[in-house]
């Protein structure tokens, strides 16, 4: 059974409305970042850059104090060669003194330093140092901001990152550290080959009985890799009629020294030699020149790659170095001859993946090309000649398949989206072994290390194993890679000190256990991390109770449910135990035990386990500590705050400047503009003076001024302009308000006339309908109306005398307020409920007698009779 069931959708619809959080998928390449956001708010696609590009250059840079990203950052390398940071994927968890770092130095113009963790930091020209994790985190945060902008500001915290299957645990840690520094959470890491496979499987269906084998061949900037996968339709559950697509990884192969970047480097070598020969100078000594040449090499390579018929391309760099405008021509033949030795290395990963899986080219249906460097004709022809033209497939998007597959993988993991089910069974790439010191037989014996491979390369991720040790005393186990993973990289992963053993064993023994043991559970997670999950002391104790005996009879013993056991006996076989002597045995016991119980065979036992203390010490390249990550996060947050403050200041500056120009236009306009009509000469003069003064100030001191000062300068001018604006608004508003006032005046008068008539009628004629209102009510309204009229007449006359460029004596707001009073009183009467009928027996409409409204009631249903 697969541990990981990945359900995938083509259109995403959400399952749970309340808990939905959007998900960000990132394919962080050495040259390009591709990202995708999964949310019901936006169509499922790759995330666009600010200028609508579908991929984002993996560069962060500083132009003096301004931080730049993507192509803006990449493009300034020629001017700021030590402040533009690219190809950082090479440096994730790279030990400072490793060949990887030497290689990085050969392709980069930046300055590098060693961190306290033995990894790499980069140094800006201002002297500040930034760890690789921090620089990568900045880019993750940049991508997150793009995603949040696409989602109208909704927060994004969950991330899936596609990583190469060859990434070691240290490198995976570095990715997760960067995600955390960026203030996000890693939902999962997914191997990029598997992500491409998910993308491939999305729109296809597969046979039920026969797996179909394909190789995902990915040539990226920093490496070439091959992932051998099979696709097959399998029932969702045994005997189910619903089918899921099973994606199984069978093998991987890779070469971490060839890829697009190495091709760029080779091309640049051609240009360097050419330049140095032509001008008798050493361009290598010039950082700017080298950075410019690097960019040009990438451009020339792209031209030679874009068109198979492009036999040559011009290289051209203005003022490359030493004031020289460099021009040259690179032929495809030159380029290919420079790279001749790489040809076998482009295809070896394919053979390695086949070997790993124990298959041959004949078993493979197609080799699916992905990754930007597969566009290079040299690489394509190498792959073609290795597997045959007919097997080459271009049926996934070379740039986007990994991120889109990764997004769907993550969407399914988060269980928030509806599904086409795809199950992924991935594997680990390197042998992982457990090492520990053998228990010394006597004082004189030399300490001896025993190594046992627990997760051989090709083990399914998302599995665990329980190791059994016959130990009496506390000891430590170490998890490490059996062989070299990357030259110069450490092989140790972690050490787990297990303590409390003697006490726990004594306890179990005392309770009747015979030969209790220590069991440690090691886990290989879905994201490819190994860890020691826990350790226990364990012993079987005869259960003499009735329940125990019954259990035994029905075979319900707990011990038969033991999951996976790999035994390493240090006492019984310590003599024979060579470094690898027990591997095959361990492997043999890898299989899950049969779930069928074996009743009556074993004596009744009661399992007893006592948890032991496990203290984990980290490897020589440890992941960042919580404190280190917090410090980095604070550092990044400080930059964000600074940049936000800077943006606010720029906005205040621009807004002031814009305001000044607008005001100057207003003042300069001699025609009868509303502004002119509503302002007086002396006011305009005051504004002119203030305007020129502010212009001057902005020019002299504006750049250094703080945001509040910039804002106050604008406010000062606005306060001069405000009365003019107000007059103009009143010119617009007053007639409307007056009209409304007159309307209420008029309708109140109408109402009163009619109501008076009704009242009079009802008083005169006992058969007439009773009046709804009393005399007092009507008198009250009449009074208010007269007051309103008097006020209105008086003030409207006054206002009529006021000139347009003078402040009004009667504000439209006051007009409205007075009218509102009248309106309210009128409405109160209009809305008044008709008088209630009297319930007195024999009462009729003739009851209306007095002038008091309370008494004049209309019988219910009168209107209907
Ligand atoms: C691979 O091909 C060989 C020979 O063509 C065949 O014998 C073998 O069964 C195939 N293996 C699989 C897994 O299909
Ligand atoms: C053994 O440990 C259990 C708890 O883990 C404790 O309750 C018990 O008293 C211990 N027995 C002895 C004999 O120490
Ligand atoms: C006054 O208001 C009425 C009704 O809203 C409208 O028909 C009339 O045109 C208005 N007159 C003026 C001068 O605004
Ligand atoms: C109020 O309305 C009355 C009657 O319609 C009219 O005679 C009077 O002039 C109006 N007063 C004002 C200020 O509009
Ligand atoms: C006056 O009486 C008529 C007839 O009963 C009624 O429709 C109208 O609403 C009354 N008017 C007022 C202002 O009360």
Across the major sheet, the strand order is 1-20-15-14-13-18-19
Per DSSP, the total helix count is 20
Ends apart, CA distance between termini:
83 Å
Q: Can you tell me the CATH class of the largest domain?
A: Alpha Beta
Low-confidence blocks of residues: 1-18, 555-602, 838-865
Write the layout of secondary structure elements.
Blueprint: E1 5-8, E2 23-28, E3 32-38, E4 56-57, E5 60-63, E6 66-69, H1 70-75, E7 84-85, H2 99-107, E8 111-114, E9 120-123, E10 129-131, H3 132-150, E11 158-163, H4 169-181, E12 185-191, H5 192-202, E13 212-219, E14 224-235, E15 243-255, H6 260-279, H7 287-306, E16 312-321, E17 324-331, H8 332-338, H9 343-357, E18 364-370, H10 377-387, E19 392-393, H11 401-413, E20 420-425, E21 432-437, E22 449-455, E23 463-469, E24 475-481, E25 492-499, H12 501-510, E26 517-524, E27 530-542, H13 546-554, E28 565-567, H14 583-588, E29 605-611, E30 613-618, H15 626-668, H16 674-677, H17 681-701, H18 707-764, H19 775-801, H20 812-830
Parallel strand pairs: 2-11, 11-12, 13-18, 15-20, 18-19, 23-28
Antiparallel strand pairs: 1-20, 2-3, 3-4, 5-6, 5-7, 8-9, 9-10, 13-14, 14-15, 16-17, 21-22, 21-24, 23-26, 24-25, 25-30, 26-27, 27-29
Helix pairs in contact: 3-4, 5-11, 6-7, 9-10, 15-17, 15-18, 17-18, 18-19, 18-20, 19-20
Bound molecules: 2-acetamido-2-deoxy-beta-D-glucopyranose (5 copies).
The site of one 2-acetamido-2-deoxy-beta-D-glucopyranose has 4 residues, from loops.
How would you portray this structure in words?
- The protein is of the alpha+beta class and 865 residues long.
- It has three domains: 3-259 and 344-425, Nucleotidyltransferase, domain 5; 432-623, no CATH class; 625-837, Substrate Binding Domain Of Dnak, Chain:A, Domain 2 (Up-down Bundle), CATH 1.20.1270.10.
- It is built from 20 helices and 30 strands.
- Strand 9 and strand 10 (129-131) form a beta hairpin.
- The radius of gyration is 41 Å and the shape is extended.
- The termini are far apart.
- Residues 1-18, 555-602 and 838-865 have low confidence and may be disordered.
- Bound molecules: 2-acetamido-2-deoxy-beta-D-glucopyranose (NAG) (5 copies).
């Amino acid at each position: 059974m697969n541990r990981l069931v990945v359900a995938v959708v083509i259109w995403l619809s959400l399952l749970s409305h309340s808990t939905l959080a959007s998900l960000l998928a990132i394919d962080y390449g050495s040259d390009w970042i591709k990202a995708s956001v999964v949310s019901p708010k936006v169509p499922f696609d790759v995330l666009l850059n600010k200028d609508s590009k579908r991929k984002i250059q993996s560069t962060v840079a500083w132009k003096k104090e301004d931080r730049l990203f993507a192509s803006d950052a990449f493009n300034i390398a020629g001017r700021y060669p030590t402040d533009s940071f690219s190809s950082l994927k090479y440096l994730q968890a790279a030990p400072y003194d490793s060949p990887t770092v030497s290689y990085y130095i050969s392709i980069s113009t930046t300055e590098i330093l060693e961190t306290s963790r033995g990894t790499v930091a980069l140094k800006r020209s201002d002297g500040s140092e930034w760890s690789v994790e921090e620089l990568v985190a900045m880019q993750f945060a940049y991508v997150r901001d793009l995603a949040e902008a696409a989602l109208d500001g909704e927060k994004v915290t969950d991330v899936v990152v596609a990583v190469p299957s060859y990434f070691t645990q240290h490198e995976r840690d570095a990715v997760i550290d960067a995600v955390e520094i960026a203030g996000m959470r890693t939902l999962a890491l997914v191997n990029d080959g598997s992500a491409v496979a998910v993308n491939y499987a999305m729109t296809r269906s597969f046979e039920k009985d026969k797996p179909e084998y394909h190789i995902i061949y990915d040539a990226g900037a920093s490496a070439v890799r091959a992932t051998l996968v099979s696709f097959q339709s399998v029932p969702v559950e045994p005997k189910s009629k619903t089918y899921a697509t099973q994606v199984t990884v069978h093998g991987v192969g890779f070469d971490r020294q060839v890829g697009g970047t190495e091709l760029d480097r080779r091309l640049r070598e051609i240009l360097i030699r050419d330049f140095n020969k032509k001008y008798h100078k050493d361009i290598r000594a010039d950082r700017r020149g080298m950075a410019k040449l690097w960019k040009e090499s990438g451009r020339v390579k792209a031209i030679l790659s874009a068109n198979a018929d492009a036999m040559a391309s011009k290289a051209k760099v203005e003022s490359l170095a030493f004031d020289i405008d460099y021009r040259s021509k690179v032929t495809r033949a030159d380029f290919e001859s420079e790279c001749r030795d790489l040809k076998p290395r482009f295809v070896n990963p394919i053979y390695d993946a086949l070997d790993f899986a124990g298959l041959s080219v004949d078993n493979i249906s197609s080799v699916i090309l992905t990754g930007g460097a597969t566009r290079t004709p040299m690489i394509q022809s190498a792959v073609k000649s290795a597997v045959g033209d007919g097997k080459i497939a271009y049926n996934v998007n070379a740039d986007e398949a990994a991120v889109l597959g990764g997004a769907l993988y993550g969407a399914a993991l988060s269980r928030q989206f509806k599904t086409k089910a795809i199950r992924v069974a991935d594997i680990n790439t390197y042998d992982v072994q457990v090492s520990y010191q053998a228990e010394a037989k006597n004082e004189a014996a030399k300490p001896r290390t025993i190594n046992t491979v627990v997760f051989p390369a090709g083990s399914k991720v998302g599995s665990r194993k329980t190791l059994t040790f016959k130990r009496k005393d506390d000891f430590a186990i170490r998890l490490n890679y059996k062989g070299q993973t990357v030259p110069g990289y450490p092989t140790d992963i972690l050490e787990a000190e297990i303590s409390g053993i003697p006490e726990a064993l004594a306890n179990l023994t005392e309770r009747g256990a015979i030969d209790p043991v220590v069991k440690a559970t090691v886990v290989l997670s879905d994201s490819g991390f190994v860890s020691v999950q826990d350790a226990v002391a364990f012993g079987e104790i005869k259960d003499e109770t009735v329940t125990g005996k019954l259990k035994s009879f029905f075979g319900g013993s707990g011990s038969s449910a033991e999951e996976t056991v790999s035994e390493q006996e240090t006492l019984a076989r310590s003599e024979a135990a060579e470094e690898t002597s027990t591997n095959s045995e361990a492997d043999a016991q890898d299989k899950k035990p049969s779930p069928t119980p074996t009743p009556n065979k074993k004596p009744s036992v009661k399992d007893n386990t006592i948890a032991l203390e496990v203290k984990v010490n980290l490897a020589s390249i440890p992941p960042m500590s919580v404190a280190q990550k917090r410090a980095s996060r604070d550092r990044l947050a400080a930059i964000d705050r600074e940049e936000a403050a800077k943006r606010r200041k720029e906005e205040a500056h621009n807004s002031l400047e814009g305001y000044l120009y607008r005001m100057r236009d207003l003042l300069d306009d001699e025609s009868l503009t509303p502004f002119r009509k509503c302002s007086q000469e002396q006011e305009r003069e005051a504004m002119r003076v203030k305007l020129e003064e502010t212009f001057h100030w902005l020019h002299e001191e504006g750049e250094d001024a703080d945001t509040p000062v910039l804002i106050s300068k604008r406010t000062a001018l606005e306060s001069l302009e405000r009365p003019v604006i107000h007059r103009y608004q009143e010119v617009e508003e007053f007639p409307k308000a007056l009209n409304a006032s007159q309307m209420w005046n008029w309708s109140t008068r109408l109402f009163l006339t009619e109501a008076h008539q009704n009242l009079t009628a009802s008083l005169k004629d006992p058969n007439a309908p009773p009046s709804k209102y009393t005399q007092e009510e009507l008198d009250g309204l009449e009074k208010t109306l007269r007051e309103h009229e008097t006020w209105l007449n008086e003030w409207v006359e006054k206002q009529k005398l006021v000139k347009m460029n003078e402040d009004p004596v009667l504000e439209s707001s006051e007009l409205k307020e007075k009218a509102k009073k009248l309106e309210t009183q009128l409405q109160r009467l209009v809305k008044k409920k008709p008088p209630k009928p009297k319930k007195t027996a024999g009462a009729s409409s003739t009851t209306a007698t007095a002038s008091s409204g309370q008494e004049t009631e209309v019988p219910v249903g009168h209107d209907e009779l």
